[in-house]
Amino acid sequence: MGVLGWLYLAPPDFPIVLHGMMFLAILMQGTSQLGASGLRGLEDARGEAWARTGARFTFAIVGGFGVWLVAEEQALYVAFLAFLMGEIVGLILTHRWMKPVGLSLLPNRPTKPTLKATFLEAWPFAAAGILGTMVFRIDVVMLREMLPQGGDEMAGLYGAGYRLMESGHFLAASVAAAMFPALVRRRSEEGTLPFDILKRASIGLFSVGFCGGIFLFILADPLLSLLAGAEFSSGAPYLQALAFTVPFTFVNFALGTAVFACRREVWGLFGALLALGLNVVGNAYGIIYHPEHAGLWAGAMSAVSELLLTCSHLVILGLHRRAVRTT
User: Fold this and answer.
1) Same domain, 15 and 147
2) pLDDT per residue over 151-196, tens digit each?
3) How many CB atoms lie under 10 A from the CB of residue 149?
4) How far, in Å, are 112, 118, 261 from residue 115 at the CA level?
């Protein structure tokens, strides 16, 4: 799915070398996430946290410094190479964490009944994860494909801001991944989630996200000029609009993990569907009626959609807590 999505988004004249690097990176990322799911099944998410942190850190260091050291026409190759190197590091760290607990990236082939049972249990998790990703990334596709004029340019400027904002997500993802085993264990032992841990984690992530959003809003122009190039500095207003999504995105990592931990993933799926639908409708309205400000509209709708997702998570967890108390 990731490769097909990339082939759809990539320009027709894109260099074949970059296609190859992206294919390998997506393959390694998917394999690493498969291994991380096995660790989560053993209630050990530390390996995933280390792998994601290592991958993002490698990408930031190699890509950030690499683009300064090469000619401008080679910067894109360095960025893709940095992404590939990051995913290689992530896969190595995942494998090293799996080995001591008896897991393998090449396990024996399961039986059909086992596959069926696994699919029936896992599909809500997978669907909710895919929809959660689409909530954020659908706007780039819509800007590129639906704007009558200048869609590619606006999507490029918006995408540069999005990638810069997304670079900090590994922090929230690492906290949520490390928290998942504790949530599952306490739910199994006590029949409910440790809402004290969840509350502290959510407040902490929201606070960090709030500070990060302010940082991006104030320094949008110099950050884009420094990290993406002076030609992308005109996309600063789009990054400023996206900055409003950061606190809600950060807290959603914790709240979404809690929804999965309390086995309310189907409810979470409906919340993600609502957020995705709102984002699509809002982006379409901005593109049709305000095409000159479609990028700003897309950033604003991303923030509103993430806020809706936050509210849906809170409602689900509140209903779950009430149901547990009355039983």
Assistant:
1) no
2) 778 888 898 888 888 878 878 887 887 777 777 777 766 667 778 8
3) 9
4) 5, 5, 22
Q: Smallest Cα–Cα separation from 213: which of 205, 203, 202, 225?
A: 205
| Lookup: tokens for 193 | 């989630």
Please state the domain count of the chain: 2
Distance CA 179, CA 261 (A): 10
Mean pLDDT in the chain? 83
Give the C-alpha separation, 268 to 279, whole Å: 17
Tell me the C-alpha distance between 180 and 258, whole Å: 7
| Statement to judge: residues 92 and 122 lie in one domain | no
User: Which residues constitute the domain of residue 275?
Assistant: 111-327
Hey, what are 172's tokens?
A: 């929230």
pTM as predicted: 0.74
- Token readout for 120 is 């029936």
Q: If we measure between CA atoms, which residue out of 105, 51, 58 comes closest to residue 82?
A: 58
Do 151 and 248 lie in one domain? The reply is yes
